[in-house]
Amino acid sequence: MPNMPKNKNPMPTQDPKIRKNNFLEVAMGYTEKLALDEAERCLNCKNMPCVEGCPVNVHIPAFIAKVREGKFEEAYKIISESSSLPAVCGRVCPQESQCEAKCVRGIKTEPVAIGRLERFVADYHNDNSKEAPKKVKSNTHKVAIVGSGPSGLTCAGDLAKRGYEVTVFEALHLAGGVLMYGIPEFRLPKSIVQKEIDSLKEMGVDFKVNTVIGKTLSIDELFEEYGFEAVFIGSGAGLPRFMNIPGENLKCVYSANEFLTRVNLMKAYKEDSATPVIKASRVAVVGGGNVAIDAARCALRLGAKEVYIVYRRGEEELPARKEEIEHAKEEGVVFKLLTNPTCIMGDENGFVKSIKCVEMELGEPDASGRRKPVEKPDSEFTIDVDCVIMSIGTSPNPLIKSTTEGLEISKHGGIVTNEEGLTSREGIYAGGDAVTGAATVILAMGAGKKAAAAIDEYIKNK
Amino acid sequence: MNKILKRKVLNPTVILMEVDAPLVAKKAEPGQFIILRADKDGERIPLTVADYDRKKGSVTIIFQVVGATTKQLSTLNEGDYIHDFVGPLGKATKVDGLKKVAVVGGGVGCAIAYPVAKKLHSMGADVHSVVGFRNKELIILEDEFRAASGKFVLMTDDGSAGEKGLVTNALEKLIESGENYDEVITIGPLIMMKFVCSLTKKYGIKTVASMNPIMIDGTGMCGGCRLTVGGKTVFACVDGPEFDGHEIDFDEAINRSSMYKPFEKAAYEKACNLYKDL
After folding, report:
1. Does A216 touch chain B (CB under 8 A)?
2. What is the helix (H) or strand (E) element at residue A258, kind and residue range?
3. Which tens digits make up the pLDDT trace of A71-89?
4. What is the structure's pLDDT at A15?
5. 3-class SS at A1?
6. Do residues B58 and B5 make contact, with C-beta atoms less than 8 angstroms apart?
7. What share of chain A has pLDDT > 70, as a percent?
8. Phi, psi of B221 (to 5 degrees)
9. Nearest Cα residue to A192 out of A289, A124, A242
10. Helix/strand/coil for A362
11. Which residue of chain A has the CA closest to B38?
């Protein structure tokens, strides 16, 4: 008989007062007891709506049933049939708008904590399993993956499992893409990402770092000179956008990408890092997505006394995950909602001194379906800050499209693909942010997975 | 990991390294740059390609020891490895159709100006090179420049070699004497390029300046290298590094380049202590 408490078992977390001063993981994960208890809440529905809600269709009730039996390793095997990065997804997926949004228990009470259970199972496996990932016998077909973020890693993993000889090309010195340079340590420890990459290596996937496709090598060379039969482009979202307001190029104005790259990839939060980052005392982060919240919480951990999220719409419209917003609030991040910056002011040495903003109110819905923010007259005010981080999205990177003839690009600059990830050129597939613009880790993984299946079909039928 | 094939000290603070990097060498053109990390925990620094040998598969970099990373890099010897070396990045210098060009270099910037002069010279253009250094001790690539130039003017701040004065003095003299340049290409300290550009603007000569701002990834991802050119925000790594010198906001670039001065100074002193016995 299923356990009937109304609410999910809460996730044990570090105390906000303590965690805002460290980069250790905020959410500490379920204990075995909590996991067993939470698994009892699953109704094991026949029609499995949760599975439909998952972009990679993890067999959710099946793995939870194994958790209930205490067979965690078997639960892991079930998850890994569909997902190549369970420890990552268990941490950063927006389950509340995917699997858990479809959970039948969520209609009247809280849904089953699917994400927390997934994380528990993945961590259990990582801590206890000594079994090395299996290397499948090669089918001698070569596939190139451009970019080692979530879509590329997923595509690589799925193809390696099918016997393909996969090479992943990464522009930076370290594989992992946004999982390494973007999402902070306290939300996704880098050792976990590294573990996922290492297991792909054990499966035979070859990683070539320091290789910029579109510069060092072109896609055409991959086909003609290196003998790849298909290429998957998962090169990510690209260039940070700025608002084009006065003062954006003052010292101590960062894009969120730069700020997070310094902190995460280049480890600038460590005292002995060779890469500097400004440790400001009052910081304004412009934007309301997960990246903005990550930047705000990093700034806090670097010692900022006051950190503001400046967002032009209201609380309801914040694109960031609810859980992250709650965590940020607990840590003391101040949300200045319905507020839009108009100008960044500098001191006599060219450093940021303050940010001028106006108050906004919500008008009629715009093209995105969200109510359009309109400026309130005579509402200008100033916040004193010594650092501004712009986190208002990205625009696509020109490097690949400018060096690959015949690759169709949308008017927003993303690569155009069909349902299966095929681009306008034979043998070239794409997925993730390079196609959709900035989105989530799991959507990118879903795209990588679909493309892997399509590439498999394509090469088999060639 | 890329092996250092050759290491040569050009002057007390400037070092040349020829690095084994076949993929970079295959594509590199004058004006492009690479990003390197000296060791596994190092910072990423951009350096412009000074030369390349496609057959040998090598790329030459020339750098001045100015900070912690270049100090550390300078301690590596032939046979040692540079941990990460990626490129070629940025756009190549546009040289097509140029018949007569003044190449104006300053200090270690001459290391980058030289391959441009060489390429133009090999295309049959008339190259006038104007190079400036603080003093005689710091002169680099003099013979190479002479070989690639129809006219060569050497300037030093203190007059210890060539003529005493600034590169802008020499350039103005050439222009005043009736030399008609299709284009001026300038590479050197920001302040020098600023004055070269304001001089050529006065004469209405198209001028291209090679910018070297603070950079991390070099592929457009971080936006740290942004500049204002013609009132628009551009990224030196993907849109440049060369831009229309008359449109660049040099004052802003100079301001931005000083963002980490205190950190850089402390890191350099630390590195100097660390490597003092080497």
Report:
1. yes
2. helix A256-260
3. 999 999 999 888 888 999 9
4. 95
5. coil
6. yes
7. 99
8. -80, -35
9. A124
10. strand
11. A274
Which of these, A296, A307, A290, A295, lies nearest to A386 by C-alpha position? Answer: A307
**A378 contacts A280 by C-beta, under 8 angstroms:** no
The interface predicted TM-score of the complex, written ipTM, equals 0.92
β-strand pairing of A239-240 with A230-233: unpaired
What is the average pLDDT score of chain B?
Answer: 93
Residue pLDDT, tens place only, B203-246: 999 999 999 999 999 999 999 999 999 999 999 999 999 999 99
Tokens of B67: 């900070």
**Alpha carbon separation from B67 to A385, B74, B111, B267, B268 (Å, rounded):** 29, 11, 18, 7, 5
CA distance B166 to B169: 5
A461 φ, ψ (degrees, to nearest 5): -95, 5
Q: Considering only CB atoms, which chain A residues are within 8 Å of B24?
A: 216
CB A73 within 8 A of CB A66: no
Examine the pLDDT at B272 and tell me if it is beyond 90: no
Structure tokens at B40: 């596994």
User: Taking a C-beta distance cutoff of 8 angstroms, is the pair A234, A431 a contact?
Assistant: yes
Low-confidence ranges of chain A (pLDDT < 50): 1
Subunit contact A254:B68, Cβ cutoff 8 A? no
Alpha-carbon distance of B237 to A212, in angstroms, equals 13
Domains (range + CATH), chain B = 2-89 (2.40.30.10), 100-257 (3.40.50.80)
Using a CB-CB cut-off of 8 Å, the residues of chain A touching B84 are 173, 209-210
Q: Is A222 on the interface with B (CB under 8 A)?
A: no
Q: Does A418 reach chain B within 8 Å, measured CB to CB?
A: no
Residue to substitute from A208, A242, A249, interface B, most B β-carbons within 10 A: A249
Q: What is the pTM of this model?
A: 0.93
- 3-class SS at A96? helix
A371-393 pLDDT per residue, tens: 889 999 999 999 999 999 999 99
